[in-house]
Amino acid sequence: MVYFGENFFWLLPVTSAGTGWTLYPCVQFKPKLVKYLYLELWILYLYRPCDSTSVFRPRLAVVSRVTLPSALFTPAVILAASCLPAESTMFLVGLSGGIASGKSTVVAMLRELGCAVIDADVIAREVVQPHFKAYRQIVRYFGTEILLENGEINREALGNIIFSHPEKRQLLNSITHPEIQKEMLKQILKHFVLGCRYVILDIPLLFETNRLTKFMKYTVLVYCDPPTQLSRLRKRSGLSQAEAEARIAAQLPLDQKRKLATHVIDNSGERESTRRQVLRLHARLQASLDFLWARLAAGTVVVGLGGLVYLLLRHFIS
Ligand SMILES: CC(C)(COP(=O)(O)OP(=O)(O)OC[C@H]1O[C@@H](n2cnc3c(N)ncnc32)[C@H](O)[C@@H]1O)[C@@H](O)C(=O)NCCC(=O)NCCS
Ligand SMILES: Nc1ncnc2c1ncn2[C@@H]1O[C@H](COP(=O)(O)OP(=O)(O)OP(=O)(O)O)[C@@H](O)[C@H]1O
Fold this sequence. Notes:
Strand content: 5-15%
Structural class: alpha/beta
Strand order of the largest sheet: 2-3-1-4-5
Order of helices and strands: HHHEHEHHHHEHEHHHEHH
Bound molecules: dephospho coenzyme A, adenosine-5'-triphosphate
CATH superfamily of the largest domain: P-loop containing nucleotide triphosphate hydrolases
Transmembrane segments: 292-313
Helix content: 55-70%
Number of helices: 14
Number of domains: 2
GO molecular function: ATP binding; dephospho-CoA kinase activity
CATH topology of the largest domain: Rossmann fold
Pfam family, one: CoaE
Keywords: ATP-binding, Membrane, Nucleotide-binding, Transmembrane, Transmembrane helix
Protein name: Dephospho-CoA kinase domain-containing protein
């Protein structure tokens, strides 16, 4: 029976780290959780109550018999993963801004350059179509008076309610946001399978909700100075000064958001000036496909194999 005694502890971090990284692409949104759970399971198993060393040693022997093949197997999987080209990994870029600050304008330019974009506003419109769960909940809480004659939601009426009542806005957000996020996740996975190198997520409330920023490699803010934002919003939507101000006030001020973003595109001026900034951003995104994954995988392989060779040598020499 293979028994490595106290050397077993070498294998524990090796297999835990290895398995964590093996699972990483499958669970890229909870990688830490998976690693800790795995590690904790092993620790719990090791330290469960036992009366004497005579019971403890055979238990360790059983654990090491399971651990050894898994330690051998895990570096092999990671080695295979590290041989994958860098194109097989994907990162996310969060794009945000304020109402009428120019997100759609920037997104259109990025699409022209061939970027994959997922638009939260488009998804927000889809998930409130009749027969969807969010639609039923909106009708239950806001009443049938926010419906058009054809049964669809009257967006103008609903907008007038939620932009003048913060608590109703929160209620609408709590209905729609989980559905929007589920659909975004599906689309991200679809782009991953299709082999996209990065995906841009256009999320107007990215910094307000702040739940998704940790998954973004970069965050881009489409900025616009406040007077220009107000006048563009009024011109586009035909809103009164007070209505437009209420909509802008429903979001974090752009000056505050620009401090939170890793990149800022200033869309206060001419479209051509914006286009030049978009071109620079695009070049940086293209250049930032680094080899982090491959480097981490190679590091784990070296540590794992080194630990195993050391253990095997000690086992067979003694
Ligand atoms: C209130 C609704 C019906 C108004 O629809 P309308 O067609 O007039 O506007 P549209 O959906 O195109 O949104 C325009 C802009 O308004 C702003 N906005 C929309 N919803 C919100 C909100 N809940 N809080 C603050 N700003 C918002 C965003 O900047 C967005 O880009 C609609 O925006 C909605 O259902 N909002 C809730 C879902 C949501 O939060 N969407 C934002 C994307 S996550
Ligand atoms: N640089 C620019 N110069 C002049 N007009 C612009 C410029 N950028 C955008 N606009 C106009 O401003 C309005 C808002 O732009 P856009 O729709 O891109 O903003 P948005 O952030 O996507 O808006 P929302 O979040 O409200 O949907 C549009 O009417 C657009 O044509």
